[in-house]
Write a structure and sequence with these properties.
- By secondary structure, this protein is of the alpha/beta class.
- The protein is built from 24 helices and 23 strands.
- The strands form five sheets. A six-stranded parallel β-sheet has the order 5-4-6-7-9-8, with helices on both faces. The chain has a six-stranded parallel β-sheet with strand order 14-13-12-15-16-17, sandwiched between helices.
- Bound molecules: thiamine diphosphate and magnesium ion.
- Magnesium ion binds near residues 498 and 500.
Length: about 625
């Protein structure tokens, strides 16, 4: 066996440079670069190896916060439809644990992310290294064990030769659409610098082939029987359709059968809202039409969705007493949810086969007429929301979303993740292209927006990328403005200032609670609560100090002007928009948020009663 003597760090770099993923005959690089922040736990190991061997084949991108690195990498993978990922290297201790939130974000969203946190010495002779957490029970434990529950594959490399089995496992999991998520390879700092005679074929080009698996004819036939028996079938389209590039297959199947389509957050854009059969968003943040269809449906075909509580309105959305489910999903866990008849396979492959198998079956004229009329109802309400009569004063968030929606085109992508934006935008946004809406709503992680926007721009530099971010989320993580300037990755940040965590305040007060702890107000001496004046935050100066171009917008005209100027800018730009504290969008569904039944506050007790009543609509499907 021919061997090559390399350090562990160098072997990892050389290995990653030769990993590919292929689908439909097209090859893509699996690992497209490494984000990193160095410390003693990686600078002389993997860091040195990246300097010596990385080059253009595995470029290094300097992070500013390890959590952000993971978010950028995750957004990159989402924008590449899982046909490409990034790695992140950190030092030991805090650098590593800063990535735990990012790891969970990727795994929850079923997106590939490779983490290479530094780890404490394998040899242990030097005693507790700086930043080591000691455990009196065992020395075989450390902070990197925190990655286990948030990873789809986790390993710690105590000896160089363990790479021979760990690296292929890591790649297999990253490249597998049913398994993918965060892969964590913990790298003790001494092992990173150790040398070994690695077999040369470890560095051969390797292609992981993403086969489009379908299901048996018998399974298709069973699904067809369920479809033929249904009077009001409905498709719930999720992100898996994007990952499978199955948008055309979905449209074809829907048009052939007349079955309407509603979309989860990740499923936005699978069928554009302008299509007569697309009823838009469903569930807790669903719109009038989508939720009407979902409430009545007697057969729900879930495609590429993990059925989060927002999609199912905490299992209260599907109210037809006889409702049955079919699920098309690469992931068996998702395919079996809600007692569905499972079609475990690739969305495009299964949809195409199902379209053939279903023959010329189509929904009734009566149902088709209902679909059109629900859609028309929502169109009217949508217009009222985005053009409010009461247009004095600051813009509503709904107006900002609509103006951006109108301004953008097929080549722009808008990113959102947390705060009040996801609920509003899920209802209001009319997609112009499959990938113009990027939602991280699996983990709804504050701080994802700016880092994520940068990842999307890296994945496709030709796109105009917008981050819709609340003032709270901006304060949590905004330092990647600097990274975006450093890398020449222009993004446009739209900062929605409403003086605080307003969507949570809205939830609090709608549940009978008193206004408490959510707004950015000064502490008042008398009540000793945060009830004083709003604290003044100069967000424009903040963004400017990091190198961004900055515009302010207060009304429709100035927002359109700012968006026009921002589009002409070549560097990262922030548009600061003060918005109203309150929302003008009605709710068409429910979300399970428990409320105390023994509070002394009458409004809370009343809200508890309403909660108990609403909970009766919660169903168990098996
Ligand atoms: C990391 C993280 N911490 C806490 C939360 C809970 N949370 C959800 S929305 C929100 C408030 C967000 O404030 P802001 O970004 O200003 O948006 P707004 O609610 O004002 O629309 C909080 C604290 C979260 N989603 N993520
Ligand atoms: Mg806010």
């Amino acid at each position: 066996m021919n061997t090559k003597r390399l350090s562990v760090g160098a072997a990892i770099v050389k290995f990653l440079q030769n990993q590919y993923i292929a689908r439909d005959g097209q090859e893509h690089r699996l690992i497209n670069g490494v984000f990193g922040i160095f410390g003693h736990g990686n600078v002389t190991g993997l860091g040195q190896a990246l300097e010596e061997y990385g080059g253009r084949a595995l470029p290094y991108y300097q992070g500013k916060n390890e959590q952000c690195m993971a978010h950028s990498a995750t957004a990159f993978a989402k924008a590449r439809r899982r046909l490409g990922a990034m790695a992140c290297t950190s030092s030991i201790g805090p650098g590593a644990t800063n990535m735990v939130t990012g790891a969970a974000t990727a795994t929850v969203n079923r997106l590939p992310l490779l983490l290479l946190p530094g780890d404490i010495f394998a040899s242990r002779i030097q005693g507790p290294v700086l930043q080591q957490l000691e455990n009196p029970l065992t020395q075989d434990s450390g902070v990197n064990d925190c990655f286990k529950p948030v990873s789809k594959y986790w390993d710690r490399i105590y000896r160089p030769e363990q790479l021979l089995t760990a690296l292929p496992e890591a790649m297999r999991v990253l490249a597998d659409p049913a398994q993918t998520g965060t892969v964590t390879l913990c790298l003790p700092q001494d092992v990173q610098a150790e040398s070994f005679d690695f077999p040369e074929n470890l560095f051969d080009k390797k292609v992981y082939i993403n086969e489009r698996a379908s299901v048996t004819p018998a399974a298709l036939q069973e699904a067809v029987s369920l479809i033929q028996a249904a009077k009001q079938p409905l498709i719930v389209a999720g992100g898996g359709i994007h990952y499978s590039e199955a948008e055309d297959a979905l449209r074809h199947f829907a048009e052939k059968t007349g079955i309407p389509v509603v979309v989860s957050q990740a499923g936005k854009g699978c069928l554009l809202e302008r299509h007569p059969q697309c009823l838009g968003s469903v569930g807790t943040t669903g719109n009038l039409a989508g939720n009407q269809a979902a409430s009545d449906a007697d057969l729900v075909i879930n495609i590429g969705t993990r059925l989060s509580d927002f999609t199912t309105a905490s299992k209260s959305q599907f109210q037809n007493p006889g409702v049955r489910f079919i699920a098309i999903n690469v992931n068996p866990m998702d395919a079996h949810k809600h007692g569905a008849f499972p079609l475990t396979g690739d969305a495009r492959a299964v949809l195409n086969d199902l379209a053939d198998a279903v023959g010329d079956h189509s929904v009734s004229h009566e149902y088709a007429a209902n679909i059109s009329s629900w859609k028309a109802d929502w169109k009217r309400v949508h217009a009222e929301i985005v053009h409010p009569e009461d247009d004095e004063g600051a813009l509503y968030q709904s107006e900002v979303i609509h103006i951006l929606n109108e301004f953008g085109d097929e080549n722009s992508t808008t990113i959102h993740a947390s705060g009040g934006v996801p609920g509003d935008i899920h209802k209001l946004w009319n997609c112009k292209a499959a990938m113009d809406y990027h939602s991280e709503y699996g983990y709804s992680c504050m701080g994802y927006e700016i880092a994520g926007a940068m990842g999307v721009k890296m994945a496709d530099p030709s796109r105009e990328v917008y981050a819709l971010v609340g003032d709270g989320s901006y304060m949590m993580l905004s330092q990647d403005v600097v990274t975006s300037i450093q890398e020449g990755l222009k993004i446009t940040i739209i900062l929605l200032d409403n003086h605080g965590f307003q969507c949570i305040r809205g939830l609090q007060t709608s549940c009978g609670g008193k206004d408490f702890g959510n707004e950015f107000r000064a502490r008042e001496s008398e009540s000793s609560r945060l009830e004083g004046e709003f604290v003044e935050i100069d967000f424009c100066a903040n963004a400017k100090s990091m190198g961004a171009a900055v515009y302010c917008a207060e009304d429709e005209a100035s927002l359109i002007e700012a968006l026009t100027k921002a589009k002409e800018e070549t560097r990262t730009t922030m548009i600061y928009v003060p918005i109203r504290l309150e929302s003008n969008i009605p709710n068409y569904s429910w979300w399970d948020v428990p409320i105390s039944g023994s509070s002394n506050i009458p409004a809370v007790r009343m809200a508890h009663q309403n909660y108990q009543e609403a909970k009766k609509k919660q169903r168990f499907y098996y």
